[in-house]
Amino acid sequence: MPQKEIMEAKEVAEYLHLHPFTVHKFAREGKLPCFKIGNDWRFRRSAVEEWVKLQEEINHKNRSKSSSPKK
Q1: CATH number of the structural domain spanning residue 56
Q2: What are phi and psi of 31, to 5 degrees?
Q3: Could you list the residue range(s) of the whole structural domain that residue 48 is in?
Q4: Over 12-36, what HEC string results?
Q5: Could you give the number of structural domains in the chain?
Q6: Contact assessment for residue 49 and residue 43, using Cβ atoms and an 8 Å cutoff
Q7: In whole angstroms, how far apart are CA 46 and each of 23, 24, 68?
Q8: Helix or strand or coil: residue 52?
Q9: pTM here?
Q10: pLDDT tens-digit profile of 27-70?
Q11: 1 or 32: which carries more pLDDT confidence?
Q12: Rounded distance, CA 25 to CA 20, Å?
């Protein structure tokens, strides 16, 4: 079965291993790329995957900074 390009919040929650409340919160706060159809949030799988990559890069940079020797 092909993966859906447009996902509902509960599908994104399962994909990211987050609680659906967290996905809705991130959507409302503009932290997760999404759009609304009526009252329902929708997410492009490709945009969510890009967001995950960006989060990985940010976390990697933050770890690198925190592990650098202090003067």
Answers
A1: 1.10.10
A2: -85, -20
A3: 6-66
A4: HHHHHCCCHHHHHHHHHCCCCCCEE
A5: 1
A6: no
A7: 16, 18, 34
A8: helix
A9: 0.81
A10: 999 999 999 999 999 999 999 999 999 999 998 888 877 765 65
A11: 32
A12: 9
